[in-house]
Amino acid sequence: MARKIIIDTDPGQDDAVAILLALASPEIEVLALTAVAGNVPLHHTERNARVICELAGRPDLPVYAGCDAPLARPLVTAEHVHGKTGLDGVTLPEPGIALSPGHAVDFLIETLRREQPGTITLVPIGPLTNIATAFQRAPDIVPRVQEIVLMGGAYFEVGNVTPTAEFNIYVDPEAARIVFASGAPITVMPLDVTHRALTSRPWVEGMRAMGRIGQAVASWTDFFERYDREKYGSEGAPLHDPCTIAWLLKPQLFSGRYINVEIETRGEYTLGMTVADWWRVSGRDPNATFIREVDAEGFFALLTERIGDLDRRVG
Ligand code: BDR
Ligand code: CA
Asked: What SUPFAM superfamilies does the entry give (predicted)?
């Protein structure tokens, strides 16, 4: 039976690749995309989510708009990384799909209450505002979540938005704190692992040689790469968000530790830091599996296979 997931997202080129990977994979049933403000404001992220569904040949997939600002702070965005629309790199047609009526948070609550407990996995790949709001409003849904597999945080690699914080956690640290304290099983894909999932020229050119979908992926990752090349001097774009879906498909590509992870919400220099007790020195109870290693070759082979399948089917 396919694993039921809801992708909570702020597309984002790497979000887009994650969504395509999920939609390409028969082991996964995507119930809906829930959009949140993050890389760009909500009106862009919900639109981008619909553009991606259309590109993937899935106009039937519900897309809900969620929270347009973090719980307790003004929104910080990342146009300098993702471009003005959040999905710069290729111009795709205006989506014909309409937004699904209702708020993403209501959808999350209703779905988790309706479906069998332990059968829904949440995959947040943006700030955690929608998920935390749902958990605050309806604490009864928390024990019904099968698992949360999220992209966020950093520890050894430290930050990409401040010296100590990763973007998704930094944008809404209060939300992240609620989610990490919720008691739901959590798997974390931090920068420590996603910065090892770097695209290579041959991989991008392989994508470009495919049809419409592969070409979009190549253009997106090229756009995304220019920022990382300038910042880190490294070749290749880090495919952060697709690591979550790859983990669901092939956990054997990854390794990490079940440890305690706390979110800094007050630090003068460390706001939004994921304080990961890798060496288990705090005595605090573990609450998350913190991933640190990825078989990058296997990860990119998986992406090539699945995006290729989707491209042949609908591209
Ligand atoms: C995360 O922030 C966003 O820019 C990416 O989409 C990813 O989810 C990486 O820090
Ligand atoms: Ca994202």
From this structure: Nucleoside hydrolase
